[in-house]
Amino acid sequence: MTEREILLHIEHLKKEYSGVTPLRDVNLDVRKGDVISVIGPSGTGKSTLLRMINRMEEVTSGKIFYRNEEITSPHCEIHHLRQKIGMIFQSFNLFSHLTVVENIMAAPVDLLGMSKQAAYDRAKKLLDRVSLESKAFSYPDELSGGQKQRIAIVRALAMEPEILLLDEPTSALDPAMVGEVEAVIRRVAEAGVTMMLVTHDMSLARRVSNRVLYMDEGGVYEDAPPEVIFENPAREKTRRFVRQLKSLELFIDSRNFDFIGCNTSMEEFGMKNDVPKSIILSVMLVFEELCTQILLPRLSPPAIRWVVEYSKEKETATITVDYNGKPLDITKFGSEAGNVSGLTREEELSVRLIRGRARDMQWSFTEGEEQGNHICMTMG
Ligand SMILES: Nc1ncnc2c1ncn2[C@@H]1O[C@H](COP(=O)(O)OP(=O)(O)OP(=O)(O)O)[C@@H](O)[C@H]1O
Ligand SMILES: [Mg+2]
Fold first, then answer.
1. Are residues 188 and 269 in the same domain?
2. Is the bond into 301 cis (omega within 30 degrees of 0)?
3. How many helices (H) and strands (E) does the chain have?
4. Which terminus of the chain has fewer Cβ atoms in its 10 Å neighbourhood, N or C?
């Protein structure tokens, strides 16, 4: 197989603001057909990198080439460049005083000098591709967030760009709307548009891209296919970042803790990590039975750390619970050994429910630690 051609070549790119230098030395080739997800901690220069490729931001030093033309040069035609390299933002940036179809027609007419009829025909065709032809004469305010973002993508496509840069295209959307935007991103990729997308949504990155760039230490810290980055990254900081994303930590230090908020966090964690619904429901049930029914009433004040980690390979969630107080081995409750610690009927029922969901439940106690009780269990 011949290597796909290089569309973007970035060498020794540096960006310095007064006080911070988010990008010290970025080196990167983007090939035709690549769909690259750019991930990494906040402040590592992901948005800055996209903005420099689109010339919305000047580089401090280093060079960017698009098809062998140096776009960081002062002679670069910025309008022409932006026609070839489109950009999509988290906040859609549609013109609110124009209808959907007018939004899509604006740049082809104003910048490419296309006739209104041709621009209109193209806009209608594109709307049809994202199943929004019925919204052609609506105003942006009449659309849902997901629809606005699909329109923003269509508007960029009206210029027939070769590369599309997307900065967190789904982060302003309700989880239910992410799917429709993802479907459009996928379709655009299939149509052969090369993409670079900054995202904090790892399941999106995993599903749509062929390459994932992990940004850290002022540059591209690791560049690999999604399976490698998410399952088996080569370098330490990538490993730490990915591990953190795959775990959820809650800390409960009051009887009036935010129970609904905790449940929402668990649901969101499940969605972000593609955890099967049945596993997340089990995790939430065990949380309710163990934390609110058994531990909270017994601990005053409570100090419970609840950590959930999900392994995609094994399709299991591991829950680790650390809590304060005297040694309290709930794994013995309800077992053949009988009622060892004077459980109430309700508590016994809770233990039974937990046992029904969790396997390999283990308890240990470390003398002298604030949260000396440790329970570890697996679901799924
Ligand atoms: N116009 C600016 N002036 C000064 N500093 C800036 C400017 N734009 C960005 N920065 C700083 O540069 C660093 C990188 O910012 P950038 O927005 O690229 O990060 P990011 O990786 O996109 O982060 P996030 O994941 O939070 O969006 C940050 O420390 C930010 O404060
Ligand atoms: Mg950003």
1. no
2. yes
3. 13, 15
4. N
How far, in Å, is the centroid of ligand 1 from the Cα of 333? 52
Is residue 1 situated within a structural domain?
no
Distance from residue 219's CA to the centre of ligand 1 (Å): 14
Question: Once rounded to an integer, what is the mean pLDDT over residues 98-108?
Answer: 96
Residue 47 Cβ inside 6 Å of ligand 1? The answer reads yes
Q: Is the pLDDT of residue 344 over 60?
A: yes
CA 21 / ligand 2 centre spacing (Å): 15
Kindly give the number of the ligand 1 atom that is closest to the alpha carbon of 49: 18
Helix extents (H) in 158-258: 175-190, 202-208, 226-231, 236-245
Can you give the residue range of the structural domain that contains 60? 6-242
Could you give the number of structural domains in the chain? 2
Query: Which whole-number Å values give the CA distances from 275 to 140, 307, 321, in the listed order?
Result: 34, 15, 20
Assess whether the C-beta atom of 355 lies below 6 angstroms from ligand 1. no
Distance 344 CA to ligand 1 centre (A): 55
User: Does the reported pTM lie above 0.70?
Assistant: yes
Identify whether 327 is part of a domain: yes
The pLDDT tens digits of the residues spanning 165-217 come to 999 999 888 878 888 999 999 999 998 999 999 998 888 899 999 999 999 99
